[in-house]
Design brief:
The relative contact order is 0.16. By secondary structure, the chain is of the alpha/beta class. The protein has three helices and eight strands. β2 and β3 form a beta hairpin. It has a four-stranded mixed sheet, with no helix packed on it. It is globular.
Length: 131
């Protein structure tokens, strides 16, 4: 199923029901490489987003485990790696009616996992489940 028309349909219906913001969580991912002050991005999410025609305020992508933090088709798009290596932060400025007062500002922050001690009950439960 092509995600772009589905996103458009849902965004249109949600706005008609009074939604002030639309945030899409997509299990489609991509990769971006920064070189010479320009980004070269590839992957399935970069085939979907340019075809979205309804107003979407933010897309949080996943699947490829890469770091993505860019804007496509006027929509901020972020993906924060995998396994707790990073966290994605999105700040959507709001107007007095609760709608977007400007574009979302996104950032992907790396997590220094070397300084974090695993919580034993969770580490054991995760290991026991996969062993």
């Amino acid at each position: 199923m092509d995600p772009a028309p589905v996103i458009d349909d849902r965004a249109r219906k949600l706005r008609a029901r009074g939604a002030n913001l639309i945030v899409v969580i997509a299990h489609e991912g991509g990769f971006c490489n920064a070189s010479n002050n320009s980004e070269d991005c590839t992957g399935d999410i970069f085939k979907v987003v340019p075809r979205i025609t309804e107003k979407v305020d933010l897309i949080v992508a996943a699947h490829t485990h890469g770091l993505v933090n860019t804007v496509v088709n006027g929509i901020p798009l972020t993906q924060a790696r995998w396994g707790g290596q990073a966290i994605g932060i999105a700040d959507i400025p709001l107007n007095s009616a609760g709608g977007a007062a400007g574009p979302a500002r996104t950032e992907v922050r790396s997590v220094n996992t070397a300084s974090v001690q695993p919580y034993a009950p969770i580490s054991f439960a995760c290991c026991a489940r996969t062993c």
